[in-house]
Amino acid sequence: MAVAETQLYAKVANKHRSKSPSVLLESLLAKGFTAHIAQKALAATGQKTIEDAAKWLHSHCNDPSLDDPIPQEYALYLCPTGRLHDHLQEFWKESKRQCGKNRAHEIFPHITLCDFFTCEDQKVELLYDTLKRVGDSFSQSFPPSISLSLHSSTSYLGFFIGESHANILKEFALAFSSEASALADCHVKPCLKQLHLTLAHKFYPHHQKTLEQLAKCINPGETCQWVAALYSRDMRFVHYQTLRALFQYKPQNIDELMINAGDFIYVDPTQQSDVSEGWVIGTSHRTGCRGFLPENYTERANESDTWVKHREYVFAIASRFFTQSENEPNVKVNGEVRNPSTSRSITNVLSVQNATLRRAAASFCSGKISHLVAGKYYRADLNFPSTLPKRKDGVKHFECDPPLSSCGIFQSRLIGEALLDQEVTVSYVYSSPALRCIQTAQHVLQGLKLDQKAKIRVEPGLFEWTKWEASKVIPNFMTVTELAAASYKVDTAYRGNFPLSSLVPSESYEEYVSRSSAVIKQIITACPSKGKGVILIVGHGSSLASFTRPLIGLPARDSSDFAQVVRKIPSLGMCFCEELKENKWQMVNPPVKTLTHGANAAFNWRNGIVED
């Protein structure tokens, strides 16, 4: 057990236990559940119905932490509803589309009244009683509308609450915190500094003007009904990343995690360094179980997606009432229904222009080809290619420049056929000098029925970040002459923008970003924008981020963030950009879907069939 977890257990294990069970608790006790586990289930589901709690207990039957005495964390937020809420949600959506995700998108629109605090499971109902009593006492003095003024800086954009109204909200927060601390024996800290409703936080400075223009479209005086809502979260995963499963995954091995589409998984970024590439280790929010899962089966979710709304007090002009929001799904706390299969994509709001840009990351063999016997290639299994192309230095250089796998060949041709079905017209083809990329380009063109018409331009500048090369040297790539002799449709007359000799082993991240930005601009300049056609660029997983961001005017990511993004890019991942006007590009949905598939483990017929 980690030191932090040990301290957490010690902090909560010896607290005084309440003896008065609720009606819901009595029903669970009658079903044979212990008081501690029943209270945990009720707290985790917002104490709404027996059915919710029983379903949670069933899902967590194999949860190794089920008996752990760690309570939930709770926070009190003031949330807008009505037309103001609708306008804020539109801002959330449009700011994310135009400027990318920032910290504000992690949580729904709100004003923080009391930040997160812990409360023992058996005392949560006291928080509900407190919210109702304090709400009733402030119902007549609560302002019918709240004064909001826009404030902007290079890293923050939001509404500040007017002083007179802020004082009332602070008094409300202080009254709740005082009574909750006394009754529920927990430390609740009210927010007594400048109250605000955040619109954007920790964004790139060059997006400030765009965000300000979007924010000015919000009328802070719109009709609004304010709701004081009590939310909870699992305190163990506060600093974890939250992922959402896009597809179901059934474990192939005992240490893998079963996930269903829509499941949320908590992932600790500090524990991923020793995990195999393409995999993560995480804990399921639905079951509490922990294990490995394929990273490309998931997407990044919002921090608040796993929060549970417990109770809310509605400050209405004509009437005041207290509600449990029983029909509201626990994880859809901001009223927005998300489609897991499409939420990665940016909505295409314009028709595709004449000049477009697409990139496909190559699918490659699992690591190096280590099956060399006496200097000859040995096909270890059917996913290894049946033969290798001839090169003057023999097969040894395939160790650092591996070919495409059999599955990769099939997948590449399948992508080409799908592009053909969508009537995609390719005018130019560029590829990294890596053999697996050239083979991907060739088989995509075969699927498009263009392999006898289009020529592949081998561009050394498209090679991946050389720091990631395990050999710490630049691979000895096949020459254009060797590729042509091996029947690859390469343009032997093309001379790359970056000669092979310019690739530096273990280049810095800044050098790689500079190279990527320069080569993509040179490729665009070399391809006339007049006439209908597509530039197809086949690179590496890193290419999708390093080439598209400078094209659409975004700065490079931090190197640590960049590595996390690249880890999630699947084989044959595709980005699609369109040119709105000269040198003005935007990302839109690719014309074909992503190719997905599961793992297929090696099979030994002796195990379990003949032998015990």
Folded structure, characterized:
It is a single chain. With 612 residues, the protein is α+β, with helices and mostly antiparallel strands. It folds into four domains: 35 residues, no CATH class; 164 residues, Cyclic Phosphodiesterase, Chain: A (Alpha-Beta Complex), CATH 3.90.1140; 68 residues, SH3 type barrels (Roll), CATH 2.30.30; 229 residues, Rossmann fold, CATH 3.40.50. Helices cover 28% and strands 20% of the residues. It has 14 helices and 21 strands. It has a six-stranded mixed sheet. Strands 2-1-6-12-13 form a five-stranded antiparallel sheet. It has a five-stranded antiparallel sheet with strand order 10-9-8-7-11, with no helix packed on it. Strand 3 and strand 4 form a beta hairpin. Helix 2 crosses helix 3 and helix 12 crosses helix 13. This is Ubiquitin-associated and SH3 domain-containing protein A. Keywords: Cytoplasm, Nucleus, SH3 domain. It holds the Pfam family SH3_9.
Give me some keywords for this one.
single chain, 612 residues, alpha+beta, Cyclic Phosphodiesterase, Chain: A, SH3 type barrels, 4 domains, six-stranded mixed sheet, cytoplasm, nucleus, SH3_domain, Ubiquitin-associated and SH3 domain-containing protein A, SH3 domain
| Straight-line N-to-C gap | 36 Å
Structural class: alpha+beta
The tally of beta strands, per DSSP, is 21
Describe the strand arrangement of the main beta sheet, using strand numbers.
Answer: 18-17-19-14-20-21
Low-confidence segments, ≥5 residues, pLDDT <50? Answer: 1-21, 318-370
Q: CATH topology of the largest domain, anyone? A: Rossmann fold
* Overall CATH architecture of the largest domain: 3-Layer(aba) Sandwich
For the residues shown, what is the average pLDDT? 82
The total domain count is 4
- For the record, the CATH class of the largest domain is Alpha Beta
The rounded Rg comes to: 28 Å
User: How much of the residues is beta strand, in percent?
Assistant: 15-25%
Characterize the main sheet.
6 strands, mixed
Overall shape: it is globular
The CATH homologous superfamily of the largest domain is named Phosphoglycerate mutase-like
Question: What is the count of DSSP helices, taking H or I runs of 4+ residues?
Answer: 14
